[in-house]
């Protein structure tokens, strides 16, 4: 009988140190020492800089942290970009005003770009719609070639396409639950703080809470409520945790007194109930909780309308902005006056018209408004076809954001990026689930549904 030989691996004789040659060990040690030396020098320089320019030192330290994350775990940068929607601090250089959330979004988009599941057809359709939208907007830039309009064109590219890229990288790599769970937890904490401070102030109305504008707080509470209610499994939180989070976010929404966010939330939930019988069955308790908010919004708006003839209020200001925006649009109805034209001081309008339709018409004309509606329509159609809880939540937040934009500024850092990140997660998450099923293996994304 022939002898059976076992093909056992043989360690090379010239590999004396744990499977690595001595030269490789030395090279790795030298590289580590060099890295430690660079970090030591950087820390010393940051310490000196902090004495004279603490804000700049903090920014540089943040850049170092992001660079380390990008080198070790690129998806951590994408997660940071999602949670960074809460970073509203702004910095300006050379006349360019940039928020912290914008900066994190740009970094997250660049790092996440190679990790996007480009084979996903639903994702390609959404990004194709973004490209068409930006191409039409660029026509308005050519018609009004100012630095402000060019910068805003790039800003909107990242707010839409960049956000989708960040969300798609997270969803396609099985990070949906961690990302959305963290966001819901942060939002619930902020909701509790907002409600607590509102109660401590005697329930007096305020325009800002903890440095955040009330409409910003309202938008964040809205998104957290929609996601935790329509796609609870995508948060990775238990039922009891979700119940507490939703209660705190409802309290935060009430404390913010953002009437636009309240109306937008109701519209989003109505849209969601049309798309799912299960959502209709589960939404009755939430609708009961929202009744006081709806009554507050209705009576508050009616009271301001009745008093607007003789007093100065947000209603009269919005009406003035709307009329001035429409006057500017009539002077250039096709391509508008250019994005951020009101910053040039050549028109009576000195601010965004606080209405997404009027703003689109005045800035980018009929072309820009049609481009925006086309982008939203294509995205809604894609999400409707995906038919998952997270896709329904993404559709609801996109609808809610547009509804809120009818009463407030639409293109805002953070609150505008967040819905598109959820869109990216929804289409990539569903694509990963289908791919896993086709291959006959368990999918991480499938657990998010």
Question: What does it look like?
Answer:
The longest helix has 31 residues, at 22-52. A hairpin with a 2-residue loop joins strand 3 (208-209) and strand 4. The strands form 2 sheets. Strands 1-2 form a two-stranded antiparallel ribbon. It has a two-stranded antiparallel ribbon with strand order 3-4. Helices cover 71% and strands 3% of the residues. It has one domain (73-448). Helix 3 (74-83) packs across helix 6 (147-172), helix 5 runs antiparallel to helix 16 (417-438) and helix 7 crosses helix 9 (239-256). It has helices at 22-52, 54-72, 74-83, 100-112, 121-143, 147-172, 176-200, 214-230, 239-256, 259-275, 277-282, 284-307, 314-331, 356-386, 389-405, 417-438; strands spanning 90-93, 96-99, 208-209, 212-213. The chain has 16 helices and 4 strands. The chain is mostly helical. The model is unreliable at 1-19 and 440-449 (pLDDT under 50).
Structure in a nutshell:
The chain is an all-alpha fold.
**What's the number of helices?**
16
What's the order of the H and E elements? HHHEEHHHHEEHHHHHHHHH
How helix-rich are the residues, as a percent range? Answer: over 70%
Mean pLDDT: 82
Given the C-alpha coordinates, what overall shape results? Answer: globular
Low-pLDDT windows of residues: 1-19, 440-449
Calculate Rg over CA atoms: 25 Å
Give the DSSP E fraction (strand runs of 2 or more residues).
under 5%
Biggest sheet strand line-up: 1-2
Number of strands: 4
